[in-house]
Amino acid sequence: MATGLCYDRRMTSHRIVKGEHPEDPKRISVIYEMIVESGFVNDPKFSGTSNPEDPGSMVRIEAREATEHEIGLIHSRSQFEFVQELEDRGDDELIIMTHKADSVYFNRHTFMCSKLSCGGAIETCLRVAQGHVKNAIAVVRPPGHHATPDRPMGFCIFNNVCVAAKALQERMPDIKKILILDWDIHHGNGTQDAFYNDPSVLYISLHRFEDGTFYPNDPKGDSKFCGEGQGTGFNVNIPWTEGGKLDGDYIYAFQKLVMPIALEYNPDFVIISAGFDAAAGDELGECYITPAGFAHMTYMLMSLANGKMAVCLEGGYNLSSISNSALAVIKVLMGEAPEKILDPVASPAAAKVIQECINIQMRYWRWASERGNGLSLGVRAWQEKFLWEKYKMSSAPVMHKSGLVFDNALLMS
Fold it and tell me: Is 69 known to be catalytic?
């Protein structure tokens, strides 16, 4: 099966009424143009030369406007009506509303574009879950992970990924557990709020936190906030204490924390909230993740849920960085191996954060609890030493279902 692509140029109609803004409509158009120029889709308006009969080519997924019912799975009626009424506002009023809002702008096309962005995410997830494509990416805007159930904020109107997750569970009863992995440099406060009591969605976020001084300036982005009620333990925050993060920091976080928890959770579907503002060159994120870094994270996540995964665009404001990073992710989705990471070693500051997170997660995950049990680890070390010295036997992890990511790959010898 091929990889799916959801893109609709109508989503570029959402733009600031006056002046410039980092959440620029070109964010999605430059990604789409790079996909076409790489030969993965056909578009006569650009220089793409892909063959629609070629199984290596991407399959187009049509975006549609999300319904009021679908948006209402996450958002309040008052929020829906607030966005809907923007269509009738004049430019002067929209400018005033933008100044009063929390880092988000509006125009008369915001309602339509936000429904398209939400609907595009829904259709992308559904096509993967129904087996029409093996995996997919939704190149959509406005982004969504800051939008809370009650208000737009942080460049976000409706929470695309949250709405898509709930719509997917409603339409596909077999999708009981969903992992949302958010690597946007900002904490997805809206996503956390939406599922804080819900064990059917595991939310893992890697983000700059810095004691709540980095946007969205919410203390609940700290590692000690792990969910409540039935959702206790199903919210995992990895809060970086500083900027300047490198590939090695994220890979270390994935190897030591993200993937062990994700494997134990054993999701039926994976959604990546793919913000590329941690990418090198992004002035808002001030980090240095390379396209290869994003590719490796994608590669690891593809081992989950039998490869059923949808990637949904969130932030990312350097046009070169966002397009190159998205392309690297797409290549992995299509079956290419990620390129080599040049600096795979984590910084001491990052390693400290990860250890603090592991200490917290011991309460909720068997893997973390066993990892922190000194007696258990000591016994295992003695067993390994004994078996090697007496029988020349060494232990290896067992994977009952290797996942599509390991197709045609050598696991061990």
Answer: no
